[in-house]
Design brief:
- The chain contains 7 helices and 14 strands.
- Strands 1-10-13-12-11-14 form a 6-stranded antiparallel barrel. The protein has a 4-stranded antiparallel beta sheet with strand order 2-9-7-4, with no helix packed on it.
- One of its GO terms (molecular function) is efflux transmembrane transporter activity.
- It comes from Arthrospiribacter ruber.
Length: about 450
Amino acid sequence: MIDISQNKIGEKVTFSKYKSINMSFPQDEAKKRIRILVWLLVGAFLFLFLPWTQNVRSGGFVTALRPDQRPQTVHSIIAGRIENWYVAEGDYVQKGDTVLRISEIKDDYFDPQLLERTRLQVDAKNLSALSYSEKVKSLEIQINALKENNVLRREQAENRLRMAELQVTSDSIRFEQSKVNFKIGEDQLRRARRLYEEGLRSLTDFEQRELRFQEVQASLIAAENDLLKSQNARIAATIELNAIDNDFRDRMAKSSADMYEALSSRYDAEATATKLENQFSNYEVRTGFRYILAPQEGYITRAIQVGIGETIKEGAEIISILPANAQLAVEMFISPVDFPLMRVGNRVRFIFDGWPAIVFSGWPQITNGTFGGVVHAIDNFAGPDGRYRMLVVEDPEDKPWPEALRIGSGADGIALLNDVPLWYEIWRQLNGFPPDYYTARQKTENRKK
């Protein structure tokens, strides 16, 4: 047999003169490269198990947390003509400081004594209302006097009616008595005539009896006449009593009509006075609107209306003011796919424009130059661009935001979510999955279930 181990071409042929073949033979330096590559692969594999903080990155800008601390424009309540400026752009103003003065351009308010004359009209109407009030009081006194007088007159008329009724009763009794006397006189005269005709009485006796009968007959007629007079008096007393009531009702109606007319005039005067007082107050307030005042403490940023003599309309913008000492916040906008992940109290890191930073999104611990924030509020409805607005305030547990930070500055926000292995984050990004919707505690509970 042939020993193959003895069959080595290297011992018979030398390859030292062949450079390419020499390069293919393993050397010590190549072994080092292989070991480095192996360690790099092992390091990369171990690197995949490092923790990675999931985040949602979005741009925004600095604003104020409270609406009354955000930049605002000052408007003119009335139309007018610019007369004087008292501030310049960049000036610091206190609340109530005068910014500019305008004059009236409507002819209804040109009168320099408009307030004084309106006040005179108000006073005149108040005096008119007062005079009508006094007239009403006088009419009330008159009505009360009419009532008292009517009671007395009625009692007097009732007494007359009662006297007339008693007089009628008395006259009727006398009339009945006269009728009895007349009947008796007739009987006596008839007997006297019969006795005279029989010759038992003289003519003188008969004539005397006839004279007495005439007296009785006259007495009867007088009694009847007195009865009729007393009845007429009773009717007159009744008519007088009714006339008193009618006269009282007429006077009461006239006095009441006058009183109600005076009341109506008083109410009309009071309504006119109230309207004039309202007009006076409007004029007085409008006079104050000629001076444009600073609504709050802050800086004059821009004058929208300029010049002297320029006319401005009602509600026109005049200047813009940046409030001082505003509590800053960052207004961020997130997409609908990230909206379910946001919660009030979540941590956010910011990169403000003008402040350099070294950012490692997944490792906020080694990030440098960023500032911390806490989610303060999240809108429940999407904006015109389909994204949701989120307000983030300064994190009290982190370093404070820069003092030179101003409203309107840009901010790049990084909302921090769950901590996951790096390989999981790479797998999620390659598959286009959103960040985890569950916290670590919820994951543990789900795993136990």
